[in-house]
């Protein structure tokens, strides 16, 4: 007869296996999607082609939207495992697993039970938003790895003896450095919650005025800022762009058009409520307790006496407040808050599951095990559905399959009009350029050329141009202009109401 300890070992092994399956299964099933995956994978492929791994380029344009950590990871995976979609998403999968593990370690550090570590890791891995985000090549999933690590090491630096305190504080600065190299100042948002916690517990002076603060800050600068210093020195205007793109323009202005309206802050509430399912649903069983605590002034007054609760509240609500007040809002910006949610609900689930662990009857596990298994299947099916059932115009692999029969053997360039297709670089396109008809296109470091200036260049060379156009009016307009210049054209209908316009300036129409 198995002991409860044996059952826990089996459960922990099953949890580990489930997290690995959720992280890696079907990651190569879907093509590279526009716009974000096209940006990041296209930039990684361009850097790999030209051999410049410090100044990111997207085709022929300098691309400074994000620091290079993600590009380096994609390049390393492609060089190791081949140029596949799975390789492109491999780093995200690894980060997803490590974040789940760190989330579990944070729960263990706070609550002191080994079982909590596995339960918490599983809770995070099965949350809808983190699972979905891991399937897209963006810096958000890697960023969560570093924010979670910094939160864990910060807490451990306050809760251990002198020797280990300095070690964990150093690891915190290192984590913040790698986070800055992943997505810039966004990694510092959770630090605001940590700082508020220090203020409320009167530990600010003790934390910062220590021998290891200066070496830690130096490590942060070397790891996180050295690339910024290098690019700013090499590329004129880069430093100003970094400040605008990653700080002022995102937080204060509406320049980057990321849901700047005040009410759009509600997207975070919806994302956190529904994106934390199924584990987050346990709050519904504790609504009465929560309401009683929140409405009780003594509960708030006595909160500093419960440092663990105070810590979780500050590292959740302070970053959420900053995200809500900023003028740039996207659902994935809230991703660093999900590990905190997982840790917060972990004791509730642990108490709920404990009676099952203590019972000798295996049948007690039947219903929860079946429901858990069905949820995992649903998550995996959603990933497959995106790949095979959702026919989308965003899919660069499908678009390349459509246009590849028309790719000439001689030199050519693919041109898009106000709708980027950089993911085609991953599938073999020589060059992809975006031109614009807009008066105020999206602000990038290398602003797109206008169609008129591109036309002037076309008339000077003998390149073949392949225009991908998704607007009938724009197509007719371009055809009219080219006809006036006696330039030969050929039009091919594509899926999703798109057209491939083959333009050969060397031939007369």
Strand/helix succession: HHEEHHHHHHHHHHHHHHHHHEEEHEHEE
- Percent strand equals 5-15%
* Mean pLDDT across every amino acid position: 88
Main sheet record: 6 strands, mixed
The beta-strand count equals 8
Q: Strand order across the biggest sheet?
A: 5-4-3-6-8-7
SSE blueprint:
Elements: H1 4-24, H2 36-50, E1 57-58, E2 61-62, H3 69-81, H4 85-111, H5 114-125, H6 128-133, H7 140-158, H8 162-183, H9 189-200, H10 204-208, H11 213-234, H12 238-251, H13 266-275, H14 287-294, H15 297-301, H16 307-325, H17 338-358, H18 366-388, H19 396-403, E3 412-417, E4 432-436, E5 449-450, H20 451-458, E6 464-469, H21 472-484, E7 488-494, E8 498-504
Parallel strand pairs: 3-4, 3-6, 4-5
Antiparallel strand pairs: 1-2, 6-8, 7-8
Helix pairs in contact: 1-4, 1-5, 2-3, 3-4, 4-5, 4-7, 4-17, 5-17, 7-8, 8-11, 9-16, 16-17
Give an overview of the whole structure.
- With 509 residues, this protein is of the alpha/beta class.
- Among the domains are: 238 residues, no CATH class; 109 residues.
- Helix content is 60%, strand content 7%.
- It has 21 helices and eight strands.
- The strands form two sheets. It has a six-stranded mixed beta sheet, sandwiched between helices.
- Helix 1 runs parallel beside helix 5 and helix 3 crosses helix 4.
- The longest helix is centred in the N-terminal third of the chain and has 27 residues.
- The radius of gyration is 26 Å and the shape is globular.
